[in-house]
Amino acid sequence: MSDVAAGLTIEEEGGRVILVPTGDWIVDTIARFASEIARIDHDIDPGRVSIDLSGIERIDTAGAYLLARPIHRARDGVTEQHFRGDHATARRLIQLVLEKAINSEPEVEDRRFGFIQAAGRIGAGLEAAWKEMIATFAFFGHAITSFASTSARPWRFRMTPIFAVMEVAGVNALPIIAVLSFFIGAVVAYMGANLLETFGASVFTVELVGIAVLREFGVLITAIMLAGRSDSAFTAAIGSMKMQQEIDAMRVLGIDPYEALVIPRIVACVIMAPLLTFAAMIAGIVGGLLVCWSALDISPQFFVTRIHDSVPIQNFWVGMSKAPVFGAIIAIIGCKQGLDVGGDVESLGRHVTASVVQSIFMVIIVDALFAMMYLELGI
Amino acid sequence: MSAVSAPLIEVRGLKTAFGTHVVHDGLNLEVRRGEIIGLVGGSGTGKSVLMNTMIGLKRPDAGEIFYNGRALGKMADSERARLESHWGVLFQGGALFSALTVRENVMAPMREHTDLPRSLMTELADMKIALTGLGPEAPSKFPSELSGGMRKRAGLARALALDPDVLFLDEPTAGLDPIGAAAFDSLIRELRDALGLTVFIVTHDLDTLFAICDRVAVLAEKRCVAVAPIDELLQNDHPWIREYFGGPRGRAAHQAREG
Question: What is the tens place of the pLDDT at every residue in A329-347?
Answer without folding.
Answer: 999 999 999 999 987 788 8
